[in-house]
């Protein structure tokens, strides 16, 4: 059945309560699960016909164990997503088995090409839009909601604060007293839970992809992640677009998300006050440096070029005493600023 078009208006879809036809749709035939009948219409008791339609988008690549944990946590929400889109960047049979066990209405998108995280999210988000999403809930395969009320609290924060984008607080899965990525608060960076208030919303800052909930109005304004930014930079670039859009967004401190620490490849300089990103894998480093160089050529990010020059010069020349690595960083960064994404 084709979804009836929604009336257009200026009201934030997260707050839209206009009546809509009862939901009886399923995934298009091209995406039906092999060997199974089409899923029945969603019958989530807590979702009324007038509630916004939330579609979760998960991108995965050969991590079926972690994916199983994440999908179970999504399905256990007290306000469950109305539909799930899983982008499998490896077309992996073990991943397919995990997806088939999830009892949410779903669309499985196996890809013969590894699209990367950004490309996978672009594919998944556009599919969610085509399926009639009012809000898109994004997740990597190695993260998951920390509680059963994460989505409920995100929706409540969006309604109470009139936010177009709201993200949960992302905690280190191995030590939930610490933040997985940190959170920028003006001139300082929160690293532990106690650096933040116990409740409320921190406006103007968010960790993209990790449980972030976006309205369709926000997606119209910022678009989908740039598939060229594999390895590193896609989340920074999406945040850049979000800031420049002028739309209200923030992090809900009452909604939490679990994710492995993102500090693995971050080297602290000057007592930890200046972080520098240095992937251990040389090829990942080359791609990351190119992407970060491209970012410093974009509106809203150009101010970062010279601080980046200074911190990477200090790391390679003073800390590592490796002028060859410094020259390579400069070459890759310059290639990014010239938008030369072909290696």
Structure, explained:
The protein is α/β, with parallel strands linked by helices and 343 residues long. It folds into 2 domains: 13-259, Spore Coat Polysaccharide Biosynthesis Protein SpsA, Chain A, CATH 3.90.550.10; 266-337, no CATH class. Helix content is 32%, strand content 22%. It contains 9 helices and 13 strands. Strands 1, 2, 3, 4, 5, 6, 7, 8, 9, 10 and 11 form an 11-stranded mixed sheet that branches. β1 (54-60), α1 and β2 (83-88) form a beta-alpha-beta unit. The longest helix is centred in the middle third of the chain and has 15 residues, at 116-130. The relative contact order is 0.11. The model is unreliable at 1-11 and 17-49 (pLDDT under 50). Keywords: Glycosyltransferase, Transferase. Belongs to the glycosyltransferase 2 family. This is Glycosyltransferase. Pfam families: Glycos_transf_2. Pathway: Cell wall biogenesis; cell wall polysaccharide biosynthesis.
Descriptors:
Spore Coat Polysaccharide Biosynthesis Protein SpsA, Chain A, two-stranded antiparallel sheet, 343 residues, 2 domains, disordered N terminus, alpha/beta
